[in-house]
Each structure stands twice: as C-alpha cells, then as structure tokens.
C-alpha cells in the first residue's frame, strides 16, 4: 500500500521489459543478417551477442531482484559496447579502403544511440546518467564524425548529413536537455513525496500512528481478495471509560498511544495493528493457522498487562480471535471476532476467546 513499494515494482518491471525488448530486437536483427546474401562478420556477431546477454541479465533479474542496479548498469555497458563497436569497425574499414564508402556500409543504427541515451536519461538520476551518456556519445560519435569531417564528399550526401545530424546535433541536444530533465525529475519526486505523505495521513490514525479504520479497511479488503489464510484479533481496553472519567482525556490519549506501541511491538512482520474505533483495536495476521490464533492473541494480552501504564498502573484488555474460513466474507469474519470479544468480556475480561 506504500507508494515507494509501487515505484520499485514499476522500475523492476520496466527493466525486465527493456531487457526483453532489446533481446527481441537482437534476435530479429540476427535473423535478418543471416538471411543477407553477404553479411558482415560484425553483423553476425553483435546482434546475437546482445540477445543472449540480455536474456542472461533478465534471468539474473528474476532470480536476484535485489541486484537490479547492477543489472541495469551491466545492460547499459552492453548497449554502449554494441553500439560503439560497429562505429569504430566501419569507420576504420572505410578509412583504410578508398573504394569503400562509410555511407554505403554503415548499418542504420544511429537511431538506436538516440534511443539508448533517452532510456539512460529516464531511468537514472542525472549525476549517474550524464557520465554514461558522455561515454556512449564519445565512443560512437568520435569515429563517425571524424571520418565524415575528413571525407566531406560523403558528408554532403543525404545519407552523410543524416548520420552527422544523428551523431552530432541530435545527441548534443539531448545533453543540453539533461538539466531540464533533472528539474522535471526532482519535481516529480516532490509530487510523489507529497502524494505519499497525503496517502499516509489518510490511512493512519493521528494519535497512535497505526492504521485508522479507513486504512485498515483497505488492508482487510486486500487480505480477503488474496485468498490466503490468516486471523484477526479484536482487542478492547478494559474499563477505558473509567480511565477517562478518573484521569481525564489527555491521560486516556497517552494510554491509547502506549497501548498501541506495546501491541505493535509484540507483533511480527506478518501482523498489522488497526485502531478500529475508540479503545477498540483490530489485529490482522496473515498466513497464520487457526490453531495458532489463540497463542498469538494470548501473547499480545500478556504484553499489554506485563508492565505498568503510567500514571494509571496496570492495564488489561480483552480479546476475540477468529481465523478465516472458506465461506467467510470480511463482515462475517469481523462479526465472529467481535462475538468472541463479547464472550471474553462476559467471562470476566482480561482474557482471550476464540470463535
């Protein structure tokens, strides 16, 4: 439910799609070159190498998603090598053989360099993107532009002008736009932070900093849609009205804060605490078996009354536990937990009942 987690998933999927697309393009280019009557050796080596390498990187990403940044930089390294090797190879070949023209033998890959630099700009922050963009541009532009400037008869042909514009002015324009991309990225991050903050305010209880009823409802709905096993525990502070009447509402608020801290501290990573209303709290525990629900609820009850609550002294709570069944709706599950809580109160409070 957090914005950051969503962004990470989006970035992961974007990298996976990028690897898949470049692998597909490399495979398609390999097939086309193999069907040519007299393909160049460079054309027979680089496209299949790119396809295989990106397939390996995609498998690595699926198996080790935590290595995503290392995989991204590896993919960019492969892209720089795949684009710059043909630039040097064909430029040197045309330079050494007077009867060969660069504009005739150079493959139509200039657009791939522009696409590569745009992808780098989008996926990386500017301070990391800029060095990669500069290295990629220099390794590709230096041999091509140097050759064309020396062989002006090729430069002034339509093909020569197209190559010169692609490797020269178009790339320089992208480099000039990088600071503006940096500002846009910072503005987007600020908006995401504000959105995350507003989302957090909407789903969190201001007093206890736990899920409020609205946020807890979203959490419970997601749990019910998942179809996984789990339990809920309704907790109610015993005689809380007496605390408010005796010590005042400010002390009552501090008790609620301490209560929430003690319960959340006793929960593991699979547990979520929700302030359901007033002094009533709901605990959602994912993946727990029905036979273990009482054990967890009892552990929470002991954590509550194991230490004093200044200034009122000892505090107790009653609880009702219910585990999800195949025919349960969210309403029926909560109703069973509430029924168990009512039974625990009838039995004398400071205890756990299960339904």
UniProtKB/TrEMBL annotation:
The chain crosses the membrane at residues 12-32, 44-63, 70-89, 101-122, 129-150, 162-180. Its EC number is 2.7.7.65. It catalyses: 2 GTP = 3',3'-c-di-GMP + 2 diphosphate. It comes from the Bacteria. Keywords: Membrane, Transmembrane, Transmembrane helix. Pfam families: GGDEF. This is diguanylate cyclase.
